[in-house]
Amino acid sequence: MGSRPGRGGRGAGDRRAGRRGSVLGSAGLYAATCLAALLFLVPFYLIVRNALSTDPEITGEEWTFFPSDIQWGNITEPFDDPTVDFARSLWNSAVVGILHTVGTLLVCSLAGYGLARIPYRHTNKIFYAVLGTLMVPTAVTFVPSFVLVSSLGWVDSYRGLIIPGLFSGFTCFLFRQYFLGFPRELEEAARVDGLGYWGAYWRVVVPNSLNFFAAIATITFISGWNSFLWPLVIGQDPSAWTVQVALSSYMTNQTVNFHLIFMATAISILPLVCVFLFLQRWLVQGIAQTGIKG
Q: Other C-beta atoms within 10 Å of 247: how many?
């Protein structure tokens, strides 16, 4: 009889210890998450801090958490610079990013849907060929792509900036894997109603896959906005520069205008932040639907 309370006491103690361990584990997880978030935000803090500072404050030996005299006039300085049409470069990046995203979604989703759903005896061979493009370094295709674009007269044009990068083997692969897991019952019901492959894709598959499309759109837009090497080669005239090329022009062999670079950088990342904040819920859901494990 005396052993039962002991066992009950040990059980209650184990439960209390388990709860304490759970609380400590949760606290440790939150602490690690907060630390990771702070480390992630440090570059953004440095960009904003330096963008609102003077060059002596940026390069001075004494560090201040924030400038003593905030230079609000720095905000308009990138747009007032006569050597770089910064507003035009932002517009070019927006046009390239949006059209590149829409074109990539259309081309790669159609290719992925065809590889996943349309029966053809050479489907696997085509799929392996698409995967093979992922193994080809970009440097190998860069010169031939430029020669082709130049021969078509697309230098300094939106066509030259956008069309060569519309197809992505990796994006096509993601769409194929997603469509393989898409419920066939919905497509079969569409075919009963008389829809073909295109009708099933456009009226059934796409409306029920908006989360995944939004995730791919976010990643594609960010990639297109941040691209530098190809726009640098194709956009030879300053009127065709994207924002990344415009940012690089602020650094020369003679001078480096630090606060101007940081302010222009802060302005250039605002569209990306807005896109990410607007689509972050769909981004997380879409990535989860791909089956990608972190």
A: 21
Q: How far is CA 252 from the centre of its chain?
A: 29
What pTM did the predictor assign? 0.82
Taking only the tens place, the pLDDT of each residue in 57-96 is 888 777 788 887 888 888 999 998 888 899 999 999 999 9
Q: pLDDT tens digits, residue range 277-288?
A: 887 777 666 666
Residues 6+ apart with CB under 8 A from 204: 186, 187, 189, 190, 195
